[in-house]
Amino acid sequence: MSYLKSGYQLEKSFLDVSEVKRSIEKIFCNYCKLNNHEICDDFDSTLIELFKKDNDGFVGCAKLCQTTPELISLSVSPAMIMKLKELGLKNPVVNTRPLLSFSSRYTAKNEDYWKLPAHQDWYSTQGSLNGITCWMPLVDVPEELGPLEMCSGSHLCGPLPSTEDFGIPVLLTDKFEFLSLPMNKNDAVFFSNFTVHRSGNNSTSNRIRISAHFRFDDADEPIFIKRKYPKHKVEMRASGNLMKEFPMSNYLEIFNPTS
Ligand SMILES: O=C(O)CCC(=O)C(=O)O
Ligand SMILES: [Fe+2]
After folding, report:
1. How far is the CA of 13 from the centre of ligand 2 (A)?
2. Rounded to whole angstroms, how far apart are CA atoms 124 and 167?
3. Is the CB of 95 under 6 A from ligand 1?
4. Residue 166: pLDDT band with limits 50, 70, 90
5. Residue 53: partners with Cβ closer than 8 Å, 6 or more residues away
6. How far is CA 21 from the centre of its chain?
7. pLDDT at 168
8. Averaged pLDDT, 160-172
């Protein structure tokens, strides 16, 4: 079925994500080494242990992983831009910087962090009406890892009533049929901001479903232009000093390395 009819399109072997995965492993492993945290035989266990023992460290690493050149360059790669144009964005622009999700109940404080209920991305983007999300797993996602679940044709309903947390009321979701979409690393699924989707259930006890999410608008979409290109997501700077006891006396050492 075409993208316009189903509201999503799966692309097998779309882009190589191995460099992104490596950049993530490097950030977490360097952090663990420097802080004497255990590095386990497999990466997922290292993350689960870090989450348990040093939650702030886990969150810091996870956020930093979203800023690597490897990830950002995927989001603006020629193949990505070409695909967005093919799917109808005349003049693709980035809605939000790339996001990474580490989905597992063992690396989340509550369910909203790893298992999103049915929603449309529109409520978190609110850019152009033809806005598109590209979702790419960085690991193979078979059924037991909780693939993304999509509702074919749901984008044609337009914006549905939304609850505060961007979910849509259960009554409405009952009308939709969710289709589980197992994927492999390097695959990508592109979907309309109005396509209803939700997270599947990662039922494994020791595996993390790592995925990258890219969101785009179309600068040439006439209503987006008429709405004066509103920006929904605003990043705020925390006020004041982040660390009160920051050892400023060590500041010069970085310019005078001894090793
Ligand atoms: O990764 C998932 O399971 C869903 C993520 C999602 O839909 C979102 O961030 O909007
Ligand atoms: Fe979503």
Report:
1. 21
2. 11
3. no
4. low
5. 37
6. 14
7. 67
8. 71
Q: Are 74 and 80 in contact (CB under 8 A)?
A: yes
DSSP lists the bridge partners of residue 202 as 145
Which residues make beta-bridge pairs with 246? none
Whose CA is closest to 7, among 181, 147, 166?
Answer: 181
Tens-place pLDDT, residues 185-205: 999 999 999 999 999 999 999
Bridge partners, 234 (sequence order): none
From the CA of 239, how far away is ligand 1's center (Å)? 30
**Amino acid sitting at position 252:** L
229 CA distance to ligand 1 centroid (A)? 24
Q: Burial, 178: exposed, middle or buried (Cβ in 10 Å; 0-12, 13-18, 19+)? A: middle
At position 5, the amino acid (one-letter code) is: K
pTM beyond 0.85: the answer is: yes
How large is the angle between the packed helices 55-65 and 18-34, nearest 10 degrees? 150
For ligand 1, atom 8, which residue shows the shortest CA distance? Answer: 121
Question: What CA–CA distance (Å, rounded) separates 196 from 167?
Answer: 10
